[in-house]
Structure formats: structure tokens, C-alpha cells
Amino acid sequence: MDSAKSPSEVARETLKLLAARRLSPTPDNYQALYEEVSGVRTAPNFPTAQLRHILHVMPGQTPGQKRLLGQLENAVAQQDWSMLKNVLVGYANLGLSPVATPPPASVSITQLPTTLAQNLARLVSNTLPALGEDDPRVHELAAQLCAFLREPERPIATAELMLSDFSYRLSFAAEDQAAIRQGLLGLLRLVFENIAALSIDEPWLHGQAEALLAASTPPLTLRRLDDVHKRLKDVIFKQSEAKDRTVQAQTQMRELLATFIERLAQMDESSSTYNETMERCAERIGRATQLQDIMPLLEEVMAATRAMALNSRVTRSELQDLRERTEATHAEITQLRRDLDHASAQARHDPLTGALNRKGLDEAMEREIARAFRLDTPLCVALLDVDNFKAINDRLGHAAGDEALMHLVRVTREVMRPQDQLARHGGEEFVLILPNTQLADGVKAMERLQRELTKRYFLKEQERLLITFSAGVAQVEGKNGSADAIRRADEGMYLAKRSGKNRVVAA
Question: What is the 3-state secondary structure (H, E, C) of 9-68?
């Protein structure tokens, strides 16, 4: 058709076509024929109203639905079919999990990889020392398995069977070893408990038994056992030395007593001889009739008296010497017992820091609680934990960590009162016993210690480190409130940690 036709001409021809084709005069039919006659296709009308109606009835409860409905409204407003399509597809897929792609076809492996076989062989070899020599069958299976894993050809089916047999046997051996270990530890603790019960009258031996009981309490660590071993070895040496000196002193005391008894017997014998001489002379004097008969008797009496006096002086001097030696020996025995008690007390202290250990803490708490109730005075406990202690160990080594703990203990002893007692509760945790202290005063005391620590840097290899701690303070309530007070102080310490560290919280 000619594009120069006027709109009226196009309209007339459109009406003629409607009549010729017997079509209903609807807007859609008229528009289609009009475009056909004019040769110009008009853009379809955008169904804004219909789409908005659909938009209002679509669910919009979840954040994802709300987001997509907002995008859909923008697409309708902009009459953007492409955006509308993308939003509708996204809404349709909302909440659907992505389609799982099938895994790639696996390659059939029949031989055990070399690296895996080597690692398995090392694992089996490293497992055997922990099992001991009690089960020969386990060692036999382990040797066979290691030999197989080191062969060039290692079929997976054979490896699976051998590993299954070894694992089955290993499970029984491990259970047996665990049972044996627990049984031996139980017997050892029973021996320690029996020694402690039978040594009440020997404080030094009782202290050692209590220390061994504490050392054998699970969980056991090599470092803890090594520290206790060194400490007990030193204490046992001191006790052995003091015990030998005590035995020598007791032997000397017995010798002195024997000498004393011998001197008393000699005095009794001399006295009997003197009495016999006096009686004999008195009898002879009674029979004498002349003066010259009496003179020799008087001389004999004088000689016997002088001999008796001389013997008395010698005996008195010897007895005085025995007395002095006895007193000196008694004083030495007393001092030796003090040394033994002191050596025993060392078993109640932490070998690294010199603070009380758990056993010493329990005894100190028992004494202070009894004193607090007897005198009707308050008693507080503080539990402190060194901040960032693991970072110190990781960066500078465990030796630096130990020195940091000793620095903390040293400053604490200088700052706190003489009656306050410090105990190592475990690792980097310490407990302070604060007699005659209210809760508020206990918090102030710990804050004062924190301020003092910030003034005294810990020096390690020319590096100045600031040691801080977080602490909880609790007041002891009731005669059996030791464990409860420490538990509440521990909770306060964790609150202080969560609040930013280097803080004190009253619990």
C-alpha cells in the first residue's frame, strides 16, 4: 500500500476490510486491519493496571519476597518487559534449592596411594608404644600391616581387610590398657591414702602423702608430674638428711641416758661403801677404850669422807655435763623436727611460683573460715586470671610465661597484706584469701593490685610487657562456703573477661 495515504483513507479501507472479511468491529480487529492497511505496527499497550493488581495479591512476607515485589513494582512503573521477566523468574525460583549437578564420574582406584600408605604405616608404628607388650597379637598384626603398606603393590581390598582386623584387635588392647592404667592409678592412690591415714602423728610424712595424692589426681600431664617429681625429690633428700641426723641425735640421747644411769649406780655404790665404812668405824669406836685406838678410826672416817666428797664432786660435774649435752641434743631434735615439718610444708606449695598449691589452698581456707566464724569477721576470696597469657606463651615461649607468673606473684606479695594468702589455682589462675575484708574492700584491694602491676613492667629480652589480670571477688558465706565462694569468684572473673579484661567484678 501507498504510505502517503491519509489517516481518513486508511480508516475507510480498514472499515471496508472489516465488512469484506465479515469480522466483528472489535478494537483488536480494527487495530490489526488498520496496521495492515497503513503498513505501520504500533507498540502494544502495557498492562499496567492488570500487573499492579497481580502485584497486590502476591505474597510479600519474607525479606526475599519483599525485595522482589519492590523490583516488580519498579518494572511495572518503567514498563520494562525485560526487567519484569527477570523479576518474575526470580520470584518463581525463590526458596528453591539449586539443582544438584551429578558428580563427575569417579575413576576406579584399585591400589592404595603411596603417600596414604606411608602415613598409615607411620600411624600404626606410632600407636604401638602406647599399648605396651601385653598383647603379642596386636604387634603381630601391626608388623604385617606395616610390611604390606610398604610394598609396591597395595590392593585396596586387602588393605581394607587388614586395617579392619588391626582396628578390631586394637580396640580390645586399648580398652585393656586403659583399664590397667586406671587400676594401677587407683591402687597407687589407695596406697597414698593409707600412708596419709597412718601418718597423722608424723606431719612430715603426712604432708608427703597428701602431695602425692594431689599429684596423682587426673587429669595427669607430663609437665605437672615433672614439677612434682623434682619438688618431691628435693624434699625427700632434705627429709632423709634430717632423718639421719635425728637418728644420730636419738642414739646420742640413749648413750647419755645410759651414762647417767651408770653414774647414779656408781653414786649408789659409793654411798653404800661410805655407809658401811661409817658403820664399821662407829662400831669400832664404841669398843675402843683408849684415845690412841680412836685416832686411826677418825683418820679412816676423814679419808672416807674426803673420798665421798671427791666422788660427789666428780659425779656432780659429770651429771652437769650430761645435763648440758642432753639439753643440747633435745634442742637439736626439736630443730630437726621443725626442719621436717618445714620440708613437709614445701609439698603444699607450687614448685614454680612458691604460692600455695591446691592442697595448701584447701587447708588455708579451712583455717581462715574457722577463724572468721570464731572472731565473727568477714572473709573474702578473689580469683584472678592473667589476661592474654596464651599469647605470651605462643610468642615468647613457656619459659617467659613462667617468669611472667613469678613476676605477678612477686608483685602481689609486695602489695597485699601479710595476712593475705596467695594460692595457684591452676595454670594462670590464682586465688587470694582476704581475711577480715568486706566485699567492697576486697574489690578495692584487687584494683589496687592492678594499678601497681601497670607500674611494674615485666622485662623479657629487653622487651617491656604489661601484665594484667581479670578478677572476681566473692564473700564467704557459711562454714562450708569455700567451694561456693570460689565458684562465684570464678563467675565474676569470666564476667570481667567479657567486659574487656583488666577488670574486677564483685560476685
Answer: HHHHHHHHHHHHCCCCCCHHHHHHHHHHHHCCCCCCCCCHHHHHHHHHHCCCCCHHHHHH
